[in-house]
Amino acid sequence: MGKDLFTMEGKTVVFTGGCGSLGRVMVKALLEYGAAVAVLGRRDRLDESYEEYRRNGRLSVIPTDLSKSEDTREGFRKAEEQFGSLDVLVNCAAYGGGAGGKSCEYRLDRITDEIWEEGVDGTLNITFRCTREILPYFDRQGGGNIVNIASMYGMIAPDFAVYGSDIPWNPPTYGAGKAGVLQFTRYCASALARRNIRVNSITPGPFPNISLDTDQEFIRRLSGKTMMNRTGKPEELNGALLLLCSEASSFMTGTNIIVDGGMTQW
Predict the structure, then answer these.
(1) Where are the domains of the chain?
(2) Among 29, 55, 75, 179, which is least packed, fewest CB within 10 Å?
């Protein structure tokens, strides 16, 4: 493989949720390493720093409602139409509470069936739908690569003392759905290996989207939960992403890479 071990040259990545606070940073890393990227999501929120990639034809944001199978299917069709072969799928999109800085009802006795179903749909079911829809494209070209973005809360329970009484707790649907993503990753790795499709996951730890309005005392408490005594920076996910998306991980499947400053280890 030589010095270009992590190159993405000649690869097209379909990236769901690529306009979020973590997704947009990961999308830029893939572009910088040579990939063409089709971002599937509801809205285009990428700023002017992505314009060069749009102009040279290596980036397209395709409006897609990933909560609907028909829209999801059409999004993949448009991605292939624009870029030709589809080589990698990154399942990053999430909705329904606990994702993208959005809160939802977290008190167990007040969660309705509708809230529960939307939360699980926006974490686990969305990953299933996108995986299902890309398989025909991978089969036509003889293989492919899937990277699922999970969460530390798919592995451990939240410490609610960190949240306190003024900050909404992370809802149970998010962790339950992300735990499902981790198992779905292992299942797909086993089921799809014979079709030359690799499936791995990345588990981010605490990567809060910090702004001027962020409660700094909350960040201090959250930082204290990690061995490194700080929260993560979005770009610190790029190493794991490039490893799993590139041929550097050609003999890896069913693997979960945890990027959490040690939080899940104690």
Answers:
(1) 2-261
(2) 55
Q: Which residues pair with 13 in a beta bridge?
A: 37, 88
The CATH number of 2-261, from 3.30.300.30, 3.50.50.60, 3.20.20.60, 3.40.50.720, is 3.40.50.720
Is the pTM for the entire model greater than 0.90? yes
Q: d(Cα 154, Cα 173) in Å, to the nearest integer?
A: 10
In tens digits, the chain (266 residues) has pLDDT values of 556 999 999 999 999 999 999 999 999 999 999 999 999 999 999 999 999 999 999 999 999 999 999 999 999 999 999 999 999 999 999 998 766 555 678 889 999 999 999 999 999 999 999 999 999 999 999 999 999 999 999 999 999 999 887 777 889 999 999 999 999 999 999 999 999 999 999 999 999 998 888 899 999 999 999 999 999 999 999 999 999 999 999 999 999 999 999 999 99
Query: Which residues, at least 6 apart from 107, have a Cβ–Cβ distance to it below 8 Å?
Result: none
